Amino acid sequence: MSKTTSHDPLGRSRTEIEVEVTVAILICLTAVFGNLLVLYVVNRDSRLRNVTNLFIHHLALTDIVSATIDMPFWITSLYTGTWNFGQVWCQVAGSTFNFLGCASILMMGLIAFNRYMKVVKPTLYKKVFPNKKAAQMYCVLIWLVAVLMAITYLSGWAGIKFHMRLLICSSEHTAYGLASAGVIINGVMIMIFYCHFRIYKAVRQSTENLNAHAEGNGIRSLNDTGRFNITEIRVLNACFTVACFFVITYIPVYIIIVTWNFRFDVPQTVHIASIFLKFSGSMVNPFIYGIVNPLFKVAFKRALSFGRYGNSDTNQNLSRNRVAVVEMTGRNWTIFTQHN
């Protein structure tokens, strides 16, 4: 029978501490491995070297830094139930936490905007994203914005304090901290939902037009072949998976920090669940890429099998009777025609 640990400030049992620390370590290791795999395949596979995946590359970098800098502090605090590194390191850890949160959220917004321009505004896409150099500049701009936000915390202008129930160092109750986080999180969240909604509408309209064109030319419609339903489901999955995981992993911990600053009483279970969700966001992204994106799935298999996994099955899938389909490339939806 587990007994409450008298030395634990949160009154957790030894079993509870061991379970929490074990799960946290697994999240950390999975995040590092999964995102390193993303970096590897994006740099190694020529089919993945495009603008959208360049943004995914930078998003994976934020997750790796989070797993190698933020998570070790968090895991140590999970084990001890307190902060053991002094105020200076708390300032560093809290600033890094806010820096990476800002960078990753803005990068998610940039990815959503890139897809939106590619699908909904294709004529403007080449002007806004003319080449990879321009895309790199957008990424640099995001990193600079995140650095500027971190400097305000490192300089002491915006306070950092150890959150005894989340077991992380985070921003104190200041107008700047709450306003900046609120504007960035809420603003980007609204933009992501809007972009994915417009993508869904555009793809659905294109699919309906393809059905009408196919029927008019005596070709089986997408509905008859069952491809329309599959496509519609994939559109919904792609749009809402990204948006929902963004909300699930980022919003709860922000709400907890706000309620903590205003001295609202929230159960400890909710605190722990929210911070686990926040850090698990660094872990789930590679799984989403592998499930939703066929090119990432093939690249992951090739990397994990050390190149033994070939492309024959992919080539066979692309050799079909002439039929108009809608396929997702990365997370951009492209209409094309397949030939024998």
TrEMBL record:
Chief location: membrane
Subcellular location(s) of the protein: Cell membrane
Record-linked SUPFAM superfamilies: Family A G protein-coupled receptor-like (SSF81321)
Membrane topology: Multi-pass membrane protein
Domain G-protein coupled receptors family 1 profile stretches: 34-289
Domain of life: Eukaryota
Residues spanning the signal sequence: none
InterPro entries listed in its UniProt record: GPCR_Rhodpsn, GPCR_Rhodpsn_7TM
Record keywords: Cell membrane, G-protein coupled receptor, Membrane, Receptor, Transducer, Transmembrane, Transmembrane helix
Pfam family, one: 7tm_1
Matches recorded under PROSITE patterns: G_PROTEIN_RECEP_F1_1 (PS00237), G_PROTEIN_RECEP_F1_2 (PS50262)
Molecular functions per Gene Ontology: G protein-coupled receptor activity
Sequence intervals crossing the membrane: 21-42, 54-75, 95-113, 134-155, 175-197, 235-260, 272-292
GO CC term (a single one): plasma membrane
Family per record: Belongs to the G-protein coupled receptor 1 family.
Name of the protein this chain belongs to: G-protein coupled receptors family 1 profile domain-containing protein
